[in-house]
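ok so heres the complex, two chains, lmk if somethin looks off
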Amino acid sequence: MSAFHWRCSATCGHARAGMLKTAHGDVPTPTFMPVGTAGTVKAMTMDSVRSTGAGIVLGNTYHLMLRPGADRVAALGGLHKMMDWPGPILTDSGGFQVMSLGALRKLDQDGVTFQSHIDGSKHRLTPEISTQIQHKLDATITMAFDECPALPATPENLRKSMELSMRWAARSREAFVQRDGYGQFGIVQGGTERDLREYSVRALADIGFEGYAIGGLAVGEGQALMFETLDYTAPLLPPDRARYLMGVGTPDDLLGAVERGVDMFDCVMPTRAGRTARAYTERGTLNLRNARHANDTRPLSPDCDCLACARHSRAYLHHLFRADEILGPMLLTWHNLAYYQRLMRTIRAAIIADDLPETARALRAGWASEDWTPDEMPYPDLS
Amino acid sequence: MSAFHWRCSATCGHARAGMLKTAHGDVPTPTFMPVGTAGTVKAMTMDSVRSTGAGIVLGNTYHLMLRPGADRVAALGGLHKMMDWPGPILTDSGGFQVMSLGALRKLDQDGVTFQSHIDGSKHRLTPEISTQIQHKLDATITMAFDECPALPATPENLRKSMELSMRWAARSREAFVQRDGYGQFGIVQGGTERDLREYSVRALADIGFEGYAIGGLAVGEGQALMFETLDYTAPLLPPDRARYLMGVGTPDDLLGAVERGVDMFDCVMPTRAGRTARAYTERGTLNLRNARHANDTRPLSPDCDCLACARHSRAYLHHLFRADEILGPMLLTWHNLAYYQRLMRTIRAAIIADDLPETARALRAGWASEDWTPDEMPYPDLS
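and the predicted structre for the whole thing:
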């Protein structure tokens, strides 16, 4: 087993195609990681996740430490074995979720004390504890423990928060047990302040991680400001390490971020949307609860090979959601994850073929043509 | 395509092994039909239903006529195509569900007028309408429209109800469009009154159906009375036609009914139990929410090849139910249906091998040994 690393295969503008090499297998990038919060990608079997072409999934430290508990996951053979995913798993540090608890958490310089949203029990996370928990979960990629402030925030508060996160990053690195094929990512903070982002990147690069995440975005600042932040942050990052934009996003967000040099993504959007009747397609989004789908015999996407598109009509999916049948969320989550994976493969192929700008135009034109009718359904040509 | 028929392959006592030949494929009997109420076996893809070995599934006329509507199902290519089940489908007549509506329905000699439980809209079912709807759904096996009285009932009320059902059976037969490989079953009524059951069987045999169902049982009378009713009813039925006991039941119910000459079953038990953390196994039932499973690394059943048993521990299933994850119901429904199908295969093989009594003893001994511990888990030898 060799060391965990990312190798660049091709570039197109700032966009990069590459390969992540890990103890649990290789992952072509750019890649989208389905979110498996509590040790399951909601409404999916792992066989169906695999069938979409996903190469790496994400687990949430906060949820798993509370239930079933890190020691229990370890006793069950680790997260890979417990959830039937032998491939790479990235776990977040718990920082983001804990910060979202509001009144239920108390921050100090050493870490955070918080109450479980499940039973009110008291718990503590520090850089050391978070790193140890991720070790027990057997995370292929461990994330540094950070503080993620809500935006908007004053520059002064952003600076204090970022500096705390950088001290915690150093402690996280110290606590990380290096193993062949395993890696740890530092997380760039600093909100939408350029000087803070620059400081944060330098601080993390000085510590040295196997990869770098950009945190603190997609928290309400809007796509334009997020892209602007990526424009100046991504080029500062070490070019030979993978870059991961946390918690992002829509298909359009992913495309724009890849164009700005990002390699990895995670987001609950495709899975959450799948449970609420919202479908992502080459031609924008559809709400399957809408009455206009009731008699539509077409599949969601003619080019999609997911089970929903291969075997069922939009009318059937509409029926399942109207009847509150579990199969609705099952099929639509599958479809959305299949679409996200197909999108990443399309983008990756375009980078390698050095024609990302053209592919990007075709993708955006497709997403903009939301109002299709049964008679006109020209799909963008991405062959 | 030849005519719909059932052929007996072997008998053991009153128990029969046979083959149901239909336009949509052959089904070895005894068989258990998973319930696909609204055009989906809840929490299952049809691929997973197929993987359990199920040969025929059931659809509910009442639910489907209200949503998505019989004409819409027909426009979508029929129930087989809509739900991705090219195999045989049996639809009930809607009679049982309508009777359960209580104050929302009004019975007359011609049929039943009722209000939808979904939106309160008014609908009507008669023998003719029910038969036509099942035709539109493209049911492989159409059920006669009957009245199913709740037990206990006075003999006089049971007699009146049964006589009405027999008149409706004749009208249902009249309305049925005969097609190669399609069949219609009459339904024996009469509660637990022997003379009424005898009268009902004669009336139906005089009309002539491709198969015969025993209705009006498993409605509160208890297993002993149900078996007693089967003891005198089944032998009266034409020996060359399939026999279907409606809405039954537990594994022990199925075994006892097969021993009394029944060939076909349907029940929501394995699917409903799967959604509420209850597992059926060779060693009785387990409640996966119970804390004793939290650290249990064993599969539910060592001999089961369902996804839950092949890849996951009881501890993981426990975790999924505690965390209200959709994958819990998905995996446990799969397991329960796999168990029911395996049970039917075991029973069928025992009939063919002419050793059903011995197999039945081993099965019952297994179910009775509910309280297993990790150290002692001797499974009944059914090889």
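quick notes: The two ends of chain A are 36 Å apart (CA to CA). thats all i got rn
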